């Protein structure tokens, strides 16, 4: 009898273990639903719940469809509907991301979330634009012309000079050195780094006059 009881309990526990994950998911969903319902308020008749939320205009159709679907499945006597309420408050920032852009967006959000309608630098196509270019669109949108003259143009000039000089050194190295003497060619990366740290006078210059010793001709 004891062995049969142990076998029966073991089978019950195994079935419960198989269903435990499903039960946990259902409980979490129910808790989330009740949490959202507690944020709603009753109307005058105390028969309907009213929720005031921010929703992107592009998602209004999906929201209405979800409410209609929920009303049909729940056999609600009063159908759910959506009304757009004009507001002068600044909407919260919505940053859409996917599996590809989540990593970039996490880096951006570590420094802070941008204002409403600012261009997000976390998108993959804008990830290289660390200076670049989202500030210009934001400056035009908010009519901050001083950002264009004091921020965008100086950064653009800096980038053109910096990477323009890098492209020049790459092309010069291709033309000045061949496969035979390529081992004697100085490293462009080292030159580029030393240009910022103001060092590297002992390195072999890439071209004559690259390293300035500060002296004036006799």
Automatic annotation (TrEMBL):
Keyword entries, A-Z? Hydrogen ion transport, Ion transport, Membrane, Transmembrane, Transmembrane helix, Transport
Q: Which residues cross the membrane?
A: 148-172
* Pfam hit, one: V_ATPase_I
Membrane protein topology class: Multi-pass membrane protein
Highest taxon in the source lineage: Eukaryota
Is Ion transport one of the keywords UniProt gives this record? yes
KW Transmembrane helix (keyword) present = yes
State the similarity comment. Answer: Belongs to the V-ATPase 116 kDa subunit family.
Protein name per Swiss-Prot or TrEMBL:
V-type proton ATPase subunit a
Its source organism is: Xenoophorus captivus
